[in-house]
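G., before I forget:
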Amino acid sequence: MKCLIIAAGKGSRLQQRGPSKPLIPLLGIPLIERVIRTALDAGVDEIFVVTGYQGEQIRDFLEGLAARLAIRITPLVNDEWEKDNGLSVLTARDYLHDPFLLLMADHLFDPRLGHALTTHALTDGEIALGIDLDTRNPLVDMEDVTRIKVEDGKIRTIGKGLVDFNGFDTGVFLCSPAIFKALAQSKDTVGDATLSGAVRILAAKGCVSAVPTRGFWVDVDDPKAFNKAEAALLDHLRDKSNDGPVSRYLNRPISIRVSRYLAQYDVTPNQISLFSFLCSMIAAGLFALGGYLALLLGGVLAQFASVIDGCDGEVARLKYQSSDFGGWFDAVLDRYADAFLLFGLTWHVLLTEPNGWILFIGVMAIIGSFMLSYTADKYDNLMRERFELRGMAMIRMGRDVRVLLIFIGAVMNLVLPVLVAIVVVMNIETIRRMKVASDA
Amino acid sequence: MKCLIIAAGKGSRLQQRGPSKPLIPLLGIPLIERVIRTALDAGVDEIFVVTGYQGEQIRDFLEGLAARLAIRITPLVNDEWEKDNGLSVLTARDYLHDPFLLLMADHLFDPRLGHALTTHALTDGEIALGIDLDTRNPLVDMEDVTRIKVEDGKIRTIGKGLVDFNGFDTGVFLCSPAIFKALAQSKDTVGDATLSGAVRILAAKGCVSAVPTRGFWVDVDDPKAFNKAEAALLDHLRDKSNDGPVSRYLNRPISIRVSRYLAQYDVTPNQISLFSFLCSMIAAGLFALGGYLALLLGGVLAQFASVIDGCDGEVARLKYQSSDFGGWFDAVLDRYADAFLLFGLTWHVLLTEPNGWILFIGVMAIIGSFMLSYTADKYDNLMRERFELRGMAMIRMGRDVRVLLIFIGAVMNLVLPVLVAIVVVMNIETIRRMKVASDA
């Protein structure tokens, strides 16, 4: 499927953030790149972008992006970009003969809306519009939004000034070439060359299906909307199904703030993984130095590293840099970090009480910690199947809990009890997992 | 697809092994169960078995087997079992109206032949016969085998006494109901009620396709053939693609002999895993005792456990007891065993040289050993893709090598050098794997 993106307007209310609105980076990625990636995710394989204001700059960016993503992007030019937005759509008239996705360069939306539209079946002469039925949606600017009236799955009418309305236009369309005819008709008969004008004509004929949105959508046209869009994207980072309780309620809220900051810079997720790992190694070294001050510092550093350890995945998701290798690299470094933190603590205790039992406990803690990670995948899969059946939440005993225990042990100078707790909990949990798996 | 199995004959040449030939256990599993499981593997979903000699005993067994495997097995009775074997086939005439697999209870064959036949398309009035074109096949008893002459993919003629032949009848057929007509005709016209008689009639009309066998097949009808069949099944255990060099050339040849013995008894693969694990734990304890004698004993016991560690998977494959849990259970126990063996060795050295460096080396060996296992799956998948492209053999640095190193270190009383070697090799290999994965 082809996709047409309108990126011709001036966007004057966001001018202080950058010279060209589609190129303004939101969490490190230009708006238009976010829209293009969402379109690709929805199944689009060829993209046309109508440029106007600051067109050359945008076309340069698109050329680079097309090479980077190995896709076809054809830039079109609308010299009349200061007039109604329908003229931009008409620019693409000769390129689009089948149903196509029509998007605005400054409207971000949940990929599920893109999927819903690309899989929607259009009848002849029809278009479909992604709509938001939540008329109290806090992400919507009530002053500026285009309102719609929906009845029986069809748009009845559309307009900014509508008083009788029950939804909003998200600016995400599935069009047939009928849209071009309707635009020409609206322009010629009522002198209205806006997209809304064309939709109004088609709606009057019952030819505009309404496809309700799932998830967020934001029209990023002023600083307030910009911040809302940022918040919506950051909010998505919270729902990681395999977060343990410490991650969810303590680490994640902090790491998301850090990720928001990091996303603006050229820091890769793997660099973040490595930085967190080095912090853990320094913490382990501090533990092994002996003395309460070093222990305290090490504990704080270890917990800090554990928080930062969430940022690699978050930045990867925010900046489309997720990779299998990245996840694996992070996991391998975490295993080394876990082992060294526990070895550092063991050494710390051995410095004052050099006896075999301490050594045994320390090694058993390292073994237990490894075994828990080693058995995690198999067990998680098993539990997911089971708990989904019973509708229960899944509680994981992971790295987040382990490092918090280490932090508490260091701060309270209770290293040996924490090591013993880790030995007992981690090894018993491993044996319990084997039991559960054998019964399954 | 349905399947007909002939289990009516007396099998007098194997009578010293058990009262009823189809029930004679070969590596712990009765012949007829092996044939039934191979049929199921080829896509069969309903089974008819013609019984005769010792019929009641066989029917009792089949009832239990049907419940155990949750499949439908219908026993039929041929009272004329002492006469030609075609009469047994005719017993099933009223039950089989579509193409069906026809097997002998005492003919074992590679599952691939079953697949080749069930996916073979029969034309009307035709049957297909699994044939062996290797006329020097050492598994074949030249005195007793049924010979065939194949031309252009069709059987021309068949018979034990053929002088001009180029293959053997494997006793594995895909039949249409045409076989019943041919049997009746052969019986009525030439007085020959054998299956070969019917095949001869169909072959004369060009109605018997030849499907060449892949892998082994054995007609288990005397003690010599019985031993050949056992050897063929054991031989299959050798081709495990992820065996390391020590497994392949040292451990596997021994463990297969042990497995042959163990398969006869009611020992489960998980019990074998557990036994091997306990041996490793005792070996670790012996290491920690100190002194050369305990070290030597521990080393021998550790290597013994490593050999036995191969038997769980072998017995599981020989006795159709493979399970995801079994493989995982074995892997988890192996990780504990690895860690304790290395910890035992570390303790052994600390007894005579109690210093921090030894401790550090010991813990690093445990960490390195864990990391190698932790990174193995990801890395193996990666390498398999690559090396399959280049056609190279894959060399693994796994548990087999690690335990052999421990054994050598213990026997030669060179514990510290072995620990250092493990630290260096295992951790460098882990880092190398991360590098390779990141470049991929």
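Confidence is low (pLDDT under 50) at residues 389-394 of chain A. Chain A has two domains: 2-230, 240-439.

More on Monday.
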